[in-house]
Amino acid sequence: MSLITPVGNGIKSVNRWFSRLPYVTDTVCERFQDPKANSAWIAGLGVTSIVLKDGLGCYLYVNQSLNNKDIPEDKRKFVAALDLANGGLMILLQILMTYTISKKAFQEKIFEKLFGKMFNRQASKSMQAIMESKTHLNGKVKGNQEFHKAFNDYKDSAISALGTLTTLIAATTVGKRILTPFIATPLADKTKEWMCRNDKPATVHKDTKNTYDTQTSAGEKAEKQTAAKLNIIK
Amino acid sequence: MFKPIYIWKVPLFGEVMKVESVKPQIKTGIGKMPQKQHNPNFTALLPTISKTVEINMNDEVKNFMPPIIKGMKKISDNMGEVQNIIINALGTGLVAPIFIKWNPLSKTDEDTRTYSAWRQPVSAVLAVVTQVGVTIPFNRMITRLANNGYYDEKYNKTLFQDKEYIEKNLKRLYPHETNAKINDMVKQKMAEQQANLLRMIKEDKVMMSRDDGNTFQMSEKAYRKLQNDVIKKRLKDANDELTKCTETTIPKKLKRAEYYRTHKDEALKIFKDLSEKLNKTDSAKTFQKDIKKLKKQYKNADSELLAIFDDILDRRGNNQQDLKTALDAKLKGILRDIKFYTDEPTVTSKETLKDFITQWETRERINPINEEIKILEEIQNKISAKTPTKDIENYLAERINDNPQHRLFKFKFSKEVSKLLQERIKNNLKAHKQLTGLRVSLLILPVSCWLLNWTYPRFMDAVFPNLSNKKHPNEIKSLVNKANHKEEVKS
C-alpha cells in the first residue's frame, strides 16, 4: 500500500500535467468539439498512434534482430533489413492511405453512396411522418427544430464514424497488411545492401555456414564420407 | 465557513450550496463522498420530480433510425484508442496471415510462409491483451478523476457526474439498499445536479469542485466563450436554413408547382389512383415496385413527374408498416399540394405562381428566420457586453412574447449553455483519453514485443510442432547426429 499510493499519485499527476499542455487544451480538445468537420484529423490521430507504435516496434525489432545471438551472424543483417523495410513501408503506406482515404471529397462520395438515401430530404420526411403517426408524438415532430437537430446529429455521427473507420481500415489493413508484404521482401535486399555499404566482406562462421542439402540427407553424406575415407585407406 | 447541505443525509456532489455565499477555495465536501450514514430516510426530504414528461427528441429519433446508423452512432461516440488498437489487431490477425501465406511474389517455401503467417495472429492477440489491458484502466481512471474533480475546468465533471459514478458511490454508502431504491436515488441526484447547474448558469457563477473539497469558479473567458458558441451555432443553423430556403426550396417548389398547374388532371388521376392502391395493399414494397413500372410507363412524360416518382421511391421505413405510413404521407402531401397551388385564384401563369410561392415562403419561413437571426445577433452583442444571463433570457422572452409559433419559442438560453458545457467536457475527456491511450500503449510496446518474442516460438512448438521443427536448426542437428550415431552403432 505504501508503494502503491505514491505510484498512483505520480501517474495521476503526470496525467494531469499532460492534460494541461497547451497543445492538448488548445488544439486536440478543440478538434474533438466538432467530430464531423474534423473527422479526417481525428482519424489521422488514430493512424498517428498506430504509426508511432509501428515506428517504435520497427526500431525494437531491428535492434533485436541485429543483436540476436540465435540468428547466424551472416543472416542477422538480412533479417534486420527485412524488419526495417517492413517497418518503413508500413509507416509510409499507412500515411499515404490516410491522406488519400480521408480526403473530404472522397469521404463525401463514399458517404453518399452508402448512406445518402438514409439522410436525404425524403428520408427525413419519411421519419417525420412515421413519428407523427405514433400517439405520443402526434403533432410534435413536424416543424420541430429539435427533430432536425437530432436527425442531423445522427448524420454527423455516421459521417464521423465512416471517416474514422475507412481511414483506419485502409491504413492498417490495406496499406499495412496487404500492400506492405508485397513490396517488403524485394525491398529488404536493397535495404540490406544499404546497411552493409560500409562493411568488410562478411566471414561466414563454420558453425553457422548453411550446409543443409535438400538432395542428400545428413546420414547419407556421412556414409559417403566414411566410404571415401575407407577407399583412401584401402 | 460553508457547510455542505445534506439531502437524505447525502451531500449533493453537485453544489447545492448558495452560490452567492461561496468564496473561491472554500471547503464544501463536494466531489468527495461523505462518511457512511445509517438508516437513511430517502423519502422525507426528497424534492418532487416534475411529473411533466418531456419528449427527448434524440431518443425518439433513435427509435426510428435504421440499425446500421445506430451502430455508426455508437462507433462514433465510442471511438478511441481502444478501438484503434482493435481495428489494427483485426488487420494484423485476420488479413496479414492470408497475404503472407499466399503471397505470389514470395519465393520462400510454404512451410516457412505458414510459420511466419502464424506470427501475426499471435502478435495481434498480444497487442490487444497488453495495450487494451493498459488503456482501459487508464480510461476508467480518467473518468473517475473527472467525476471527483481532480482535473481543471476543461475536464471537470463534478457538476454533472456520470450515472455509474453516482451509483457506485451510493452503493458504497448504502450497501443494504435495493437496486431499485439506489436507481431512484441516482435519478434524483442527476436531476438535482442538472437543476443546480442551470441555476448557476442563470446566476453566471459556475462553481466547479476539486477533489479536495474546495471549489473554483469557471473562468469568465471560458464561460462567455461558451455562451457565445451557443449563439454562434444557432446562428449558423439559421443562416444555413435561410440559404437552403432561397437557393433550393423555392426554385424546387416553383418547378413542382408549375407541373401541378400545367398538368393538374394528369397529376390528380395518377396520385389519386396510387393513393387508393396503397390503401388496398399490405405490401409497401410491392407498391414501390408498381411505382417503378409506372415510371417506365411514363418515361416520356414531364421530367417533374419522374422526379415525383423518384421522391416516392426514396421514402423509407424500417418495416412494411412504417414504409406504408411514409408513402401514404407522401401521396397525401402531393394531393394537398396539387389542390393548394391549383386552387389559388391569383395563380394564372408561371409569373404569378412565382410571386405566390415567393410571398408565401417569405411570410412563412424567410421572415421568421430573419427575425431569429436578428435576435441572436442582439444576444451576441449582449454577451460581448457581459450582460447577465437573466437579462438575456428576459430579453429573449420579451421578443418571443409567448408566441408558440416563434422559432425561438423552445430555445432556452441557459439550458443550451448547460448542454454545450456538458458536451464540451465530454469531448475534451474523449480527446484526453485518446492521447493518454496513445502514450500508455506506446509505453507498453516494448513489453508487447518482448512477449511476442517469448510466446511465438513456444506457441508454434506447442501447436504446430511440424512447422516449428523446421525452424530449429539445433534440433535438426541433434536429430541428424542421433541418426549418424545409430548408423555408426549398426556398422
Can you walk through the features of this model?
The complex is a heterodimer of chains A (234) and B (491). Chain A has 8 helices and no strands. With 234 residues, chain A is mainly alpha-helical. The model of chain A has no long low-confidence stretch (mean pLDDT 82). Chain B is built from 17 helices and 4 strands. Chain B has a two-stranded antiparallel ribbon. A two-stranded antiparallel sheet of chain B has the order 3-4. In chain B, helix 3 packs antiparallel against helix 4. The longest helix of chain B has 51 residues. The N terminus and C terminus of chain B are likely disordered. The chains are: A mainly alpha (234), B mainly alpha (491). At the A-B interface, helix 1, helix 2, helix 3, helix 5 and helix 6 of A face helix 1, helix 2, helix 3, helix 5 and helix 12 of B.
Observed structural traits:
A: 234 residues; mainly alpha; 8 helices; 77% helix; elongated; B: 491 residues; two-stranded antiparallel sheet; 4 strands; flat; disordered C terminus
Give the helices and strands of chain B as they follow along the chain.
EEHHHHHHHEEHHHHHHHHHH
Distance between the termini of chain B: 102 Å
Number of strands of chain B: 4
Mean pLDDT of chain B: 84
Q: Which structural class best describes the helix and strand composition of chain B?
A: mainly alpha
Secondary structure: elements and pairs:
The complex is a heterodimer of chains A (about 230) and B (about 500).
Chain A: H1 4-19, H2 22-32, H3 39-67, H4 73-101, H5 104-119, H6 121-132, H7 145-195, H8 218-233
Helix pairs in contact in A: 3-4, 3-7, 4-7, 5-7
Chain B: E1 6-7, E2 10-11, H1 57-64, H2 67-78, H3 81-101, H4 110-117, H5 119-148, H6 163-173, H7 179-202, E3 207-209, E4 215-217, H8 220-262, H9 264-280, H10 284-297, H11 303-313, H12 320-342, H13 350-384, H14 389-400, H15 413-463, H16 465-469, H17 473-490
Antiparallel strand pairs in B: 1-2, 3-4
Question: Brief description of this entry?
Answer:
The complex is a heterodimer of chains A (234) and B (491). Chain A has 234 residues and is mainly α.
